[in-house]
Amino acid sequence: MHVISGKYKGMKLQSLNGMNTRPTLTRIKEDAFNILSNYFLFENKKSLDIFGGSGALTIEGLSRGIQEAWINDISKEAIEVIKINLNKTNNEKYNITNYDYIFLLQILQSNKQSFDLVYLDPPFAKVESYNQVIDSLLKNKILNKWGVIILESEVVLEIELLKEFVLIKHKGYNKKNLYILRLEK
Prior knowledge:
Layout lengths: L25 H11 L9 E4 L6 H8 L4 E5 L3 H12 L6 E4 L3 H10 L4 E6 L6 H13 L3 E11 L12 E7 L4 E6 L3
Parallel strand pairs: 1-2, 1-4, 2-3, 4-5
Antiparallel strand pairs: 5-7, 6-7
């Protein structure tokens, strides 16, 4: 696993072994960021990775110019891998949290934090988790207007809440679905 583009291009990243994380495949990550680069300027933007895993998506965003990144994972082992990977960047414009995603969203709301780019790739296929996150992002204004969500799912999503977004792209892979959504309201 490595960084695809930007100032950290080629940097090798450590991954976490086990069933609790599913690193984004290089092909999917590359597709997502290539598509996103046509609709999103990374500079002076703030990102949020709710299920951070190895931190690869956050580091890819920082490599392309994200100004400030928040990265979260409930797993202490994942947090250690994230720290190792972020330390390789010599970039200090990030916040790492070790919370359950529901608690994280409550903290973000109470601190009035908002983001321009959200990575949403939970390590499980529970559709209700997508509903909970998207509902909280919208209701609590955690996603800024014109903000983008890069969403990965093992199943095709037919979430009622997706109607609030403009679907920039949906691409199906072997066992993954990539959605790029933009909030334009």
